[in-house]
Design a protein that fits this description.
Helix 3 runs parallel beside helix 10 and helix 12 crosses helix 14. The chain is of the alpha/beta class. The two termini are about 15 Å apart. It contains 14 helices and nine strands. The longest helix is centred in the C-terminal third of the chain and has 24 residues.
């Protein structure tokens, strides 16, 4: 029987995942392929009986005068993965620009207002997950506001994906996420090194990525950590997964924003489905694996069409087809 491209991709990623687990204990290739099935199991079915907002209301905290593309990419990715509503909480100067990118986004120009944290807090009861950091910048006033937003979001037990300058803030104040097990950190190579040294007071052992990610997660109180790279390595302090889904050699800016926005939706779905659906793995770890695989598949598909000219806008256009290939084929 012929095997479709989606199934081939699943098996390839399963084999890579199997190699990742071999350092810890033996697992069969079939066990690793089951990780994809776990992702599929948390995806809510599309039915005519649902109402708007039921499949996810995601908030993106970020966007300043210099950086407007990043929050847009995160928010639009959340919508295209399957969230019903996507909000962006940004600085006033970024708001009109972000609105001009897409009429689908709900944009709040509040981050640099005197009572910004209170303005965001009003919306938290309506949101299922937050993505914090895309296009945030490092303005001291904005970072103080985001610190307050993180605190009130934790008090409401909201899942939080932290990326980009949100990670810079956490490196300065690790206590912001310490022990909060509904947080997911998505650092690249440099961001991971900064976080690791801030939390463990020692340099990263670059020869042991699995162990380094595991140690950082444990040191933060089992916060899920996703180290992006040639392979994406992720851990919740108990388990380590590796995603080697085929992507491309194109590394344009914005791909991490696509990942964080996708992860915001998948985190909500996985937590809603609960550990009974994700079996031996934590829901957030399953969500992280799904978002990494999806981002890589988008990269691969866009590169097949555009080659060296591929940008994140091209990748966003592939989200629907990539999602179908990996999780609905």
């Amino acid at each position: 029987m012929a095997v479709g491209p989606g199934r081939v991709a699943v098996r390839a990623c399963g084999r890579a995942l199997g190699r990742a687990f071999s350092w810890r204990q033996a697992h069969s290739v079939q066990d690793m392929e089951d990780t994809f099935q776990l992702v599929r199991s948390v995806i809510p079915p599309l039915t005519a009986t649902k109402h708007k907002g039921q499949d996810g209301r995601i908030g993106v905290v970020g966007g300043c005068q210099e950086y407007t593309g990043a929050p847009y990419f995160a928010a639009i990715s959340a919508l295209k993965v399957g969230a019903d509503l996507s909000h962006v909480f940004c600085a006033r100067e970024a708001a009109l620009v972000i609105k001009s990118y897409s009429p689908e986004l709900i944009v709040h120009p509040v981050l640099d207002s005197p009572n910004a944290a209170l303005e965001v807090q009003k919306w938290l009861p309506r949101l299922h997950a937050l993505v914090v950091g895309p296009g945030l910048g490092r303005d001291d006033a904005l970072l103080r506001t985001v610190t307050d937003i993180l605190e009130v979001s934790k008090a409401r037990d909201i899942p939080i994906v932290i990326d980009a300058d949100g990670l810079w803030l956490v490196a300065q104040q690790p206590a912001l996420v310490q022990g909060y097990q509904k947080a997911v950190l998505t650092p690249n190579h440099m961001e991971f090194s900064r976080l690791y040294e801030a939390v463990l007071s020692s340099p990263v052992d670059s020869s042991d990525r699995h162990g380094s990610v595991l140690r950082l997660s444990r040191a933060l109180g089992n916060v899920t950590v996703v180290q992006k790279g040639e392979q994406d390595v992720m851990s919740d302090g108990q388990e380590v997964l590796v995603c080697s889904q085929k992507g491309s050699s194109r590394r344009c800016g914005g791909q991490g924003d696509l990942l964080s926005g996708s992860l915001g939706v998948l985190a909500h779905w996985a937590l809603l489905a609960g550990p009974e659906k994700t079996k031996r793995s934590s829901p957030l770890l399953v969500a992280a694996f799904g978002a990494c695989a999806l981002t890589r598949q988008c990269n691969h598909q866009a590169f097949q069409k555009h080659g060296r000219a591929t940008t994140t806008t091209d990748m966003v256009a592939e989200l629907g087809a990539a999602f179908s290939t990996l999780f609905e084929g």
